[in-house]
Design goal:
There is one protein chain. This protein has 73 residues and is an alpha+beta fold. Strand 3 and strand 4 form a beta hairpin. It has a five-stranded antiparallel β-sheet with strand order 1-2-5-4-3, with no helix packed on it. It is 16% helix and 38% strand. The protein is elongated, with a radius of gyration of 17 Å. The mean pLDDT is 90. It has one domain. It starts with a helix and ends with a helix. The protein has two helices and five strands.
């Protein structure tokens, strides 16, 4: 069993490259999409759309769309 943080991280194997992903939250009635794993901040555009922007570059790295149940109908 690893005793140091470095040993633990090394025991997990190589780091996999980032892959864009999305997550649906039924409780929040929203979908979050991430295109990059950069540290980000959120910027609300409308009551339904929020974008996530890179702290370093301000580029859009993801978004949140609320009200997806209504869109699906």
């Amino acid at each position: 069993m690893p005793t140091r943080v470095d040993d633990l991280l090394n025991s997990l194997g190589p780091v996999r490259p980032f892959r864009p992903y999305w997550r649906l939250s039924n409780a929040a009635d929203a979908v979050n999409v991430y295109f990059s794993n950069e540290r980000d901040y959120s910027q609300r555009l409308t009551d339904r759309v929020t974008v996530f922007r890179s702290i370093e570059t301000d580029e859009i790295v993801g978004c949140r769309i609320k009200g997806v149940a209504e869109i699906i109908k």
